[in-house]
Amino acid sequence: MIMQRVAIAGASGYAGGELARLLLMHPELEIGALTAASSAGSPLGAHQPHLPQLAGRIIQETTADVLAGHDVVFLALPHGQSAAVAAQLGESDTVIVDCGADHRLADPAAWAEFYGGAHAGTWPYGLPELPGQRDILRTARRIAVPGCYPTSVTLALFPAFAGGLAEPDVVVVAATGTSGAGKALKPNLLGSEVMGSVSAYGVGGVHRHTPEMEQNLSAVAGVPVTVAFTPMLAPMSRGILATCTAPATPGLTAAALREAYENALKDEPFVTLLPEGVWPATSMTYGANTAALQVTLDERAGRVVAVIAIDNLTKGTAGGAIQSVNLALGLPEELGLPTNGVAP
Amino acid sequence: MIMQRVAIAGASGYAGGELARLLLMHPELEIGALTAASSAGSPLGAHQPHLPQLAGRIIQETTADVLAGHDVVFLALPHGQSAAVAAQLGESDTVIVDCGADHRLADPAAWAEFYGGAHAGTWPYGLPELPGQRDILRTARRIAVPGCYPTSVTLALFPAFAGGLAEPDVVVVAATGTSGAGKALKPNLLGSEVMGSVSAYGVGGVHRHTPEMEQNLSAVAGVPVTVAFTPMLAPMSRGILATCTAPATPGLTAAALREAYENALKDEPFVTLLPEGVWPATSMTYGANTAALQVTLDERAGRVVAVIAIDNLTKGTAGGAIQSVNLALGLPEELGLPTNGVAP
Amino acid sequence: MIMQRVAIAGASGYAGGELARLLLMHPELEIGALTAASSAGSPLGAHQPHLPQLAGRIIQETTADVLAGHDVVFLALPHGQSAAVAAQLGESDTVIVDCGADHRLADPAAWAEFYGGAHAGTWPYGLPELPGQRDILRTARRIAVPGCYPTSVTLALFPAFAGGLAEPDVVVVAATGTSGAGKALKPNLLGSEVMGSVSAYGVGGVHRHTPEMEQNLSAVAGVPVTVAFTPMLAPMSRGILATCTAPATPGLTAAALREAYENALKDEPFVTLLPEGVWPATSMTYGANTAALQVTLDERAGRVVAVIAIDNLTKGTAGGAIQSVNLALGLPEELGLPTNGVAP
Amino acid sequence: MIMQRVAIAGASGYAGGELARLLLMHPELEIGALTAASSAGSPLGAHQPHLPQLAGRIIQETTADVLAGHDVVFLALPHGQSAAVAAQLGESDTVIVDCGADHRLADPAAWAEFYGGAHAGTWPYGLPELPGQRDILRTARRIAVPGCYPTSVTLALFPAFAGGLAEPDVVVVAATGTSGAGKALKPNLLGSEVMGSVSAYGVGGVHRHTPEMEQNLSAVAGVPVTVAFTPMLAPMSRGILATCTAPATPGLTAAALREAYENALKDEPFVTLLPEGVWPATSMTYGANTAALQVTLDERAGRVVAVIAIDNLTKGTAGGAIQSVNLALGLPEELGLPTNGVAP
Question: Which of A320, B43, C48, D186 sits 20 to 30 Å CA-CA off A156?
């Protein structure tokens, strides 16, 4: 077997580290160039001490020359940078995977409002579970990895909207671990501030993942869906727990809701609909490319309530990216991806 | 000055411990009997090692005889037990404070659905910030302390409903620290399970605090309010962060919303409306009898979004109880209660 | 390839869960019977929700009949129970692996003092890194898995004692995550008690792992070694960080110390001597069968100071057990075992 | 009563915030100027959101002019800066309190080795529990607040050395919460790195608090004491748990050891010798100016083992500082200082 060779741009960050961790377990992908900006020249071990297998590898500059010649290039860069690097790489058969936001939003106005700067357009969206998306990814050479929150919310609600079971007026409140904010040196991300405390941020429709959630759910629903989204920072390193709720359509029963979710998810290798009465915990998915999901009908309030847990770095970023790459390379979708969490 | 003497029933639990901690700082209340059930006969230090001033005090049985003769009796007992103990104490001028659920719900049907067993009726509700409630508490001899979640949600939304600014279709998602679940020995409350993980529980309209939230908000709104409530367990010992959202009434502006909250809260000693753009963290209120609140208008989704942080054991239980007792005893409302948190 | 079939007794506990997690990634071992005591009859998913691949498997009773017919049997049982089960299994070619304490201590007096009850004798000790031990394990049919603390301390100090670089008067202080205490429902293990707090326990020579550390280090040193051991409980689910110190022998230099450790560890697949100046963190080894080690000479105090990090459930228990089983089955020692941690 | 007026230099940091929190509860001290360097000009609420009572106070520049005219000036500044500011303040009757390291070490060589730069000399050492120290502080106008680790270690071992019960060859391993490292924006202090992980740092005699511990214990012992000190960072915001051990002098009995500690500590208002068999947890002292201490004789290893818990920000810094100031101002030593922790 000939291993396919992959490069990681942004290897010193959290998403880059998770890509490396997962790729080291992948039987058909091998790690080539590891690149970064300010960390170039230092060994990876100085930034990712949990990866002793790569400790001595020297990080290179993120340039088109260094990234050239790989079968797959993962771009784990701040938004606005992936598009520039991708442009430098030019047309090629290389699978280029943008783990950032640059190629997610189809609507230039939404891009301008939430990100600003030039709109790079869209690439095939790396969420195989979305109806029809798996086939698109099988031939994709460019992949836009979904945001971590949109991954969780879309998986939690697409069966409801695909089945016409919910009204398009969604409320989402989601807690994330601090790695979702990256390795940025900000006072509010210091351990002393985070431990023992849950905090809200980006409230009121201003979080950048909002239009991406709306784009996904609107496509499934066939009508415009609005999402009122409130993110929270929780005292844990990894994990997202999202509570996603929308008014139930008239006449919906609990049994019909359950059945719709069972049917929509029964063949999904990475999404588990939990037994009735069991609710998700992020620990169920720690370090795994999985989602743990539960749904119920709140008959008192007339709402569909879906709760989902993922690991923001794995299924929410790096694992989801590799899952899409597996499809693009014609490999089995599950290849090399952990399906069991690390717990307790 | 003659100190008034208080008893704590349930002194070995988390609510009882917090009552003791706060009462030790109170200049006009002194601690008399400390009682419990299975812990009776052991020193308080074996259960509350953070309270060295009381370490040698022996816990007594929770009986009417032991509790008699105090000016104030706090009942920090499992639901269903306070009403029985209160009945044994009989008619008297003693201020009896039920920190449990027995005397909160006015609707016997809601009691039967969510708690079961005999309905004990209602006592004056210990949330001085509710319009009109402060005066009621000044003459109360019986006080029903609100649940921790209803305290947070009611404080977060009463200005909106009092001002007619929101539709009565509320969605609440709230994260709590584990002390909210008490000292019960359950596997899901073990440190190994809780640390590094956020989990959902009691989803879909089944949490017992739901009807209490609806009762409070309906009274303020003047129409029936429904609440779709999802609680989460977060990896911290203390604190509640609640995101509370409802559709905005047509024509509401962000400025009008802000002004309504400023007016409603400007004289409240324990509720801080944060500066615009600052969002609550539970660490702001750690160990303090305070609430930190922010509100915004999500114009994209057309919703009022209020986020509030409290310490579930302090403002959410023991501190709120003492605040009401201060009123009932004719003392200054703030007396002896911490208004600054312990952070970082 | 024919998979070898393994049973796990004690599958509902933390050690049993970690064995299952690791075995699911092992290419030549497949999971057969999963057994327990009080949990028998329930699905594994009710106890190990992070293992969706096994969620529907029903836990059986721990009996000789159920365990019979496997190539490997792991006993992850409370001390005192493994010996009884092993006796029932009788003589056979099955590899029986005691993850408990029953077969670790050679000295009946030490067993009597620290554990009590009948002394079961010793089995080959499952720490391949100990000089000479790897060869013993290649032919073993019975394996005594070391305790988690003794694993860490022995790995940290054996190069010093093998090289005659330290006096036999050891002081160890080690912090463990709460999973080291198992799933027992004790108040001091509740999340509310553990989070935000480090505590000491078993101080003063009374911890059961003390004689095991002394047994290992004495064997390497060739003289009796005493260990003054203080364990601490830290607010994390997994991990041990052990600081191990002993007086330096006269004339020892920092360079000689470093060289001795480099030589002793250079071929070890799972033990990393970190670059000079880098000190271990338990996150480096989270979920991995690895140890991260650093050593220095405190010239001011004249002491060798070695600090080591392991995951108590992986290298400290389940991973170490599988490492030894790989040897016993003639498989590559590293087969199926993760060498990269899950971080951040 | 006329309040005495205090200034805090370094008010935006963790030590400065804790000083402010405690001073707000002090009945005879009121807060005057709050100063800082880069934070000058911003409101305190932007840096200490847990202190709503001071939220609107504007931070001033740290200059002699601003600090002049207060009865007490607390300097919570990085080492090297306090001496310069103190020099600018000149001779005066103001009580100047250095919460940094500048005035702790008597030995210029130790200063040069561990800190470097000009040696400022010593001020009266602010640890009232040290034999003879309380009287010195009653007339002091300058106070050097001990380091947080030296506070814990000195309290834990001074009874042993004062009684001649231990040999002068000390080993200390101590875990600290992350606030001990201050608010510096370093990658290893990010929440994502800290949570779920214990790490070692400053191992091998290089931590700056080492000579201070040796200075204190040598003074008590009357002979030079060496300390082999290993600090660890634990996943909590506050707290130090220190295990302190030294060889027992020949013939020492457990009873004699216990008695010596009881006698040494029986009149101390802030140090609790726990009941036999109970071991300290940092949660016992959370936010309180207390120490929780236990001691035992490890007869197997022939060592005295003392374990102590303090809050590094309270008894370890700000609370200890106010305790000394109370003495210097002729106030009751305990005035305004919390003696009960915030737990769970």
Answer: C48
Identify whether A132 is part of a domain. Answer: yes
- Buried b vs exposed e over D76-103: b needs ≥16 C-beta within 10 Å? bbebebbbebbeeeeeeebbbbbbbbbb
Partners of residue A195 in chain C, C-beta under 8 Å: 196
Contact criterion met (CB < 8 Å) for B179 and C192: yes
Say whether pLDDT at D1 is over 70.
no
Confidence class for position B219, pLDDT limits 50, 70, 90: very high
Given B148, B175, B264, B321, the catalytic residue: B148
Instruction: Give me the number of domains chain B comprises.
Output: 2
C168 and C297 in a common domain: yes
Facing residue for B298 by CB, picked from A201, A204, A300? A204
Contact A344, B193 (CB under 8 A): yes
D186 vs A186: CB contact, 8 Å cut-off? no
Inter-residue contact D100 to D33 (CB < 8 Å): no
Using one digit for the tens of pLDDT, what is the confidence trace for B104-116? 999 999 999 999 9
> Does residue C333 lie within any of the structural domains?
no
Torsion of the alpha carbons at D89, D91, D94 and D96, rounded to the nearest 10? 60
Q: Which of A190, A235, A236 sits opposite D190 (nearest CB)?
A: A190
Domain that holds residue D216: 149-312
Phi/psi region, residue A81 (left: phi>0; alpha: psi -120 to 50; beta: rest), is alpha
Contact residues, chain A, for D236 at CB < 8 Å: 195-196
Percent with pLDDT over 70 in chain A? 100
What letter would DSSP give residue B57?
Answer: P
Question: Do residue D164 and residue D221 come from a single domain?
Answer: yes
Q: Based on the fold, state whether residues C116 and C181 are members of the same structural domain.
A: no
Judgement on whether residues B273 and B319 belong to the same structural domain of the protein: no
The region that residue D195 occupies, defined by phi over 0 for left and psi between -120 and 50 for alpha, beta otherwise, is beta
In a domain, B168, yes or no: yes
Same domain as A134, residue A18: yes
CB contact under 8 A, D200 and C279: yes
Indicate whether C19 and C99 sit together in one domain. yes
Q: Are residues D49 and B24, on separate chains, in Cβ contact within 8 Å?
A: no
Span D141-168, pLDDT tens digits = 999 999 999 999 999 999 999 999 999 9
The mean pLDDT value for A280-292 works out to: 98
What is the rounded distance in angstroms from the CA atom of residue A330 to the CA atom of residue D114? 60
Whole-model pTM: value is 0.97
| Cα–Cα distance, B115 to D141 (Å, whole number) | 62
Answer yes or no: do B320 and B308 share one domain.
Answer: no
Q: How far is C250 from chain D (nearest CA, A)?
A: 16
CA distance D63 to D39: 14
Mean pLDDT of C128-144: 97
Q: Which chain A residues have any C-beta within 8 angstroms of a chain D C-beta?
A: 14, 177-179, 183, 185-187, 189-196, 235-237
Of A174, A185, A122, the closest CA to residue A316 belongs to: A174
pLDDT in tens, A55-111: 999 999 999 999 999 999 999 999 889 999 999 998 889 999 999 999 999 999 999
**Do residue A192 and residue D237 have CB atoms under 8 angstroms apart?**
yes
